[in-house]
Amino acid sequence: MKHLTAAEWDKAVGKLQPEIQEGKHRKAFIWHEGKMISYTYRSHGRGDCCPANPVMKQLGLSPQEFVDLRKCTIARKEYIEIYRKRQSSIPSKG
Amino acid sequence: MNSSSYRIEDFQPVVRKAVLKNFGKPKPRKKVERPSAQVDARTVFISVPISYPSAKLQLGEPVPLAAASSETWLWDEFILSSRSALQFTTLSAALPRTEYIATLGHPLFTLRKAIPVVIELQEGIFSAWSSDIRAFGYGPTELDAIEDFRSAVVELYEVLAEKAGALGPDPARTLLSLEEFIEEKS
Asked: pTM of the predicted model, to two decimals?
C-alpha cells in the first residue's frame, strides 16, 4: 500500500475529527460517546512519508475502507458506523 | 549475529576486531561522496560484500536504500553518520523479519520484557510494527524506524495511561498490553 504524505495523513485522519496532540509525533485520538475508540499518529521530522499499513491497522480499517478514507469518501459518520459494526461482530467474553 | 544493530560506542572493540580480522587494516580514508537524495542526509552506507571475506575495507558508493533493500541479506553494512560515529549494522535476514526491542532509551520508563516488532521495508521507508501494542515507528533507516518506535511507544503509553478511565475496547486492550511491557523507573 502506498505511503501517506504528511498532508495526506492530515487530510484523511482529519476527516475523522480527532483530538490532535502534538509531541515528537502528531497523535490523533478518535472519541465517540465519551470514549476513545481508536488512535493513530505520524512522526514529525521523519520525511514526508508515513507507512500506510500501520495507520490502517491502528484505525481498524480494511484495505478497501482505508482506500476510501484516503479518497475522503469515508468521514467521521461512516467511520463510526464501521467501528460499531466491527464491535458488534466481536463476540463478547463471558 | 542475530541482533540487527549496534553503536560503535557500545561495541567498539568488537567492531574494530571484526573489521581488522576480516578486512585487514583500513586504508586511509577517502573522500565520501555526498549521499543521494534517496538516502537520509545524515548517513552514508559503506557496503562490503560478505561473499568476499578477503576484500579490503574500502568506502563504496553510497547505496540508495531502495537498491540496498533487495540485497540486504547479502551485505553487511557500515553506516557512517555525519557525527563521525560509525554505526555497524548486520542485516542477517531478509525483510520482513521480527526483531526484539529491549530498551526504550527513556529517563522515566523502562521495559519489563522485549517488545517484538516486525521490520519491513516498503518504497524506501523502514517501518517497525508491533501488533501486541498496535504501535509503529518509521524512518529512512532501520535504526531510525526503531528509534521512532521507541519514542512513539512512550508517547502512546503516557496518553493512554492518563485517559485510562475513558478508553474504548481497543485502546483499553492496547494499554493492558503496554503495561505488560513498560514500567516506570523507580
From this structure: 0.67
